[in-house]
Design goal:
globular, 20 helices, 34% helix, 6-stranded mixed beta sheet, alpha/beta
Length: 500
């Protein structure tokens, strides 16, 4: 007799204030399966996960775990039934150790209190079974990397007997090396027969890790398919209704490459060295490289956050010493940082207040004309909001990023540096931002683009500068392949090109 699936959700409906969010959604996950749940922002993924986690209750439909009907009205019920959810915001106590977090409320005891030796031993065995190295049971969680905090959450779930672990954008805040650690852990869970529901916007992860994929669109089930039976192009079409080739818009007609707007010659500091870089008006130059290669360090040096201590920097042909962001702004530079929530926005302030932020903080660039351009800028970026008074925290990730771009464009820069501009937003929102980037170049801005996903650099950049170990390893034209970029990024091609 065939064993029932770990999870069978069928006919799930959910509405908030009369607005349907999920309509007759099905989701079935087998034991030992890594199952991707994908869709644009607003597709219903988070709501479906929260119903499964006991945060919300479905209006209609049924849920079965291991063939047994369940209905959750509280997260503790889901946990007791063997469902664990690892959200992007971890549910850990930073002042406690790894072992204490894993066994919180279930500590082994002796007649005189908590048996800390037994608790540490159980934790060490659990981590060893998961193939985790370098994570001490006695380490304070607050001192751990994001990846090790995530592993602690997963270990806690397994210690509670979880048969199904739901992961919400698990690599959103991880460095490249940490992503590999998570990959190994997910595969180890699958080998142990644990089912994993994997929610991610990153197509590469889905195709690397997942056995099957369920696609939601507008709160409805579109398809469930074996990963081996679908291509990235077909998956994007299912998610957003357009082919992957159209995700990266072509260079706009009439875009002209003009004079050099940003030039760095022999630039260096404690993290990068011998940087020779030019970005011209109307040009998108991509910076590619592995984590720690120096991409963000170049952006921070150009913008004066961690200034160049060697070499020269020129803006529109004028040598300058940029020693801080205010000087950078006055010189016509803009920097869209990779963490929009922590560094780019005041989340509890309005769209209008955020869009004015650079002008209000820098009287030397503020003018009535520039302030008056803000509504038109927001409109030109196709911002979707209830109005300029809406708090930014209630916008989608893609629309939050548009507000960040608008606040910099209000200062009328000549050079804009985009550091991971599409991080954490869905495929459809990415497409809209790609169009914005093309439009910026068409309007004569010099664009320096940093992205971890090579497909973005390759799809958008007119030239690609590849970094390795804090230095420029090589430069490639538009249309370069991922293999060509990686040959430089890993030091293979760069090393071969160096004279012996």
């Amino acid at each position: 007799m065939t064993a029932p699936p770990v999870l069978d959700m069928h006919g799930i409906d959910k509405a908030f204030l009369g607005v349907p969010v999920l309509t007759s959604v099905d989701l079935r996950i087998e034991r030992g399966e890594v199952h991707a749940l994908v869709g644009e922002n607003g597709a219903g993924k988070s709501t479906l996960m929260k119903i499964l986690a006991g945060v919300h209750t479905a209006d209609a439909g049924a849920i079965e775990l291991g063939g047994r009907a369940v209905s959750f009205t509280h997260p503790l019920q889901a946990q007791q039934a063997g469902v664990a959810t690892v959200f992007q915001e971890f549910n850990l106590l930073p002042e406690l150790t790894v072992a204490e977090n894993i066994h919180l409320g279930r500590e082994p005891r002796t007649w005189h209190g908590v048996d800390r030796r037994a608790m540490a031993a159980r934790t060490a065995k659990l981590l060893d079974d998961l193939g985790v190295e370098g994570l001490a049971p006695t380490a304070k969680v607050g001192s751990l990397s994001v990846a090790h905090q995530q592993i602690t959450e997963i270990a806690k779930a397994l210690s509670q007997g979880a048969d199904l672990i739901c992961m919400d954008e698990p690599t959103a805040a991880l460095a490249d090396a940490e992503v590999e650690l998570l990959y190994r852990l997910v595969r180890r869970l699958r080998d142990r027969g644990v089912a994993v529901l994997y929610v991610s916007h990153r197509l590469r992860e889905i195709f690397d890790l997942c056995d099957r994929i369920t696609v939601l669109k507008d709160g409805k089930h579109v398809t469930t398919v074996d990963t081996a039976d679908i291509t990235p192009d077909e998956l994007v079409t299912a998610m957003v209704g357009r082919r992957i080739e159209s995700v990266f818009p072509e260079r706009l007609q009439g875009t002209e490459t003009g004079e050099v707007r940003l030039r760095v010659e022999g630039g260096g500091n404690a993290w990068i060295d011998a940087i020779d870089l030019e970005v011209r008006a109307g040009e998108i130059v991509g910076l590619a490289g592995l984590q720690g290669s120096g991409r963000t360090e170049i952006a921070e040096a150009v913008f004066g956050i961690a200034p160049f201590t060697r070499g020269t920097l020129s803006v529109d042909g004028t040598p300058m010493r940029i020693t801080g962001p205010r000087k950078a702004i006055r010189a016509g530079l803009a920097l869209v940082t990779e963490d929009r929530k922590a560094e780019g926005l005041a989340l509890r302030q309005s769209v209008r207040a955020n869009a004015r932020m650079i002008l209000d903080a820098n009287p030397r660039v503020r003018s009535r004309r520039r302030l008056g351009r803000i509504p038109g800028l927001l409109s030109s970026l196709d911002l979707v909001s209830r109005g300029e008074d809406q708090e930014v925290q209630f916008l989608s990730g893609g629309n939050q990023q548009k507000v960040v771009v608008a606040k910099w464009l209000a200062a009328e820069p000549g050079v804009i540096v985009l550091d991971e501009p599409t991080r954490g937003i869905d495929v459809g929102a990415k497409h809209k931002l790609y169009s914005v980037i093309r439009q910026l170049a068409a309007e004569g801005l010099a664009v320096l683009l940093i992205a971890s996903e090579l497909i973005e650099v390759i799809g958008l950049a007119d030239r690609i500068v590849v970094l390795h170990d804090g230095r420029i390893a090589g430069e490639l034209p538009a249309g370069a392949t991922e293999q060509e970029v990686m040959a430089y990024a890993t030091g293979r091609r760069g090393a071969e090109a160096e004279p012996s």
